[in-house]
Amino acid sequence: MNSRRKEITAYFEEMDRSFFMDTHKEFAGLDQALPIGYEQTISQPSLVLEMTVALDLQPESKVLEIGTGSGFQTALLAEFSQTVYTVERIEDLHVRAKERLAEAGFANIYFKLADGSFGWSEHAPYDRIMVTAAASKVPEELIEQLSNGGKMVIPVGSPMVQELRLIAKDADGKLTSKVLNKVVFVRLKGKYE
């Protein structure tokens, strides 16, 4: 286990998942996705950890997160990167996550209420992109906003099952895609639903 993975795993194991939940707190310790309202979920903890480790965060990483949700994944990204730009389309989730993450002391997270399908072009390019909702195909806009040498983790596929993919862009802008796992995520609403 490399030292970065160890650090992330140790921090993750100390995180209080119930802090990011308004309901179903008694199930926070279970390794499963749980509802957070608006037909959205807080992801399965082991999957959040797997996706974060796969993203290969660096201390200087500038990260784009699509789907703030409860803010659980956002907190993990923010702890191990320089800045996180996170986009959420549901206003109540956006507001609650913003409050929670401020309360937790994070000052390196920027929030946007919008359709995440289009990323957040004003701050592009990003070294890392984390997508926490499933797309029918990889959004072109996100590929464009990924820097050369960057990495993106995204679930891609049908509503029933998706491939969790790690997409890397090399120094020349050439893309490679690797399947990490089979997963089931809520849909990325909008253009790539």
What is the gist of this entry?
The protein has 193 residues and is of the alpha/beta class. The chain has helices spanning 3-14, 45-54, 72-79, 91-103, 140-145, and strands at 34-37, 40-42, 62-66, 83-88, 109-113, 126-131, 146-157, 162-169, 175-183.
Written description of the protein model:
By secondary structure, the chain is of the alpha/beta class. The chain has five helices and nine strands; from the N terminus they run αββαβαβαββαβββ. The strands form two sheets. The chain has a seven-stranded mixed β-sheet with strand order 5-4-3-6-7-8-9. A two-stranded antiparallel ribbon has the order 1-2. The longest helix has 13 residues, at 91-103.
Count of distinct strands: 9
Number of helices: 5
The H-and-E topology, N to C, reads as HEEHEHEHEEHEEE
Note the overall shape: globular
Instruction: Give start-end ranges of low-pLDDT stretches.
Output: none
User: Roughly how many Å apart are the termini?
Assistant: 36 Å
What is the structural class?
Answer: alpha/beta
Layout of secondary structure:
Layout: H1 3-14, E1 34-37, E2 40-42, H2 45-54, E3 62-66, H3 72-79, E4 83-88, H4 91-103, E5 109-113, E6 126-131, H5 140-145, E7 146-157, E8 162-169, E9 175-183
Parallel strand pairs: 3-4, 3-6, 4-5, 6-7
Antiparallel strand pairs: 1-2, 7-8, 8-9
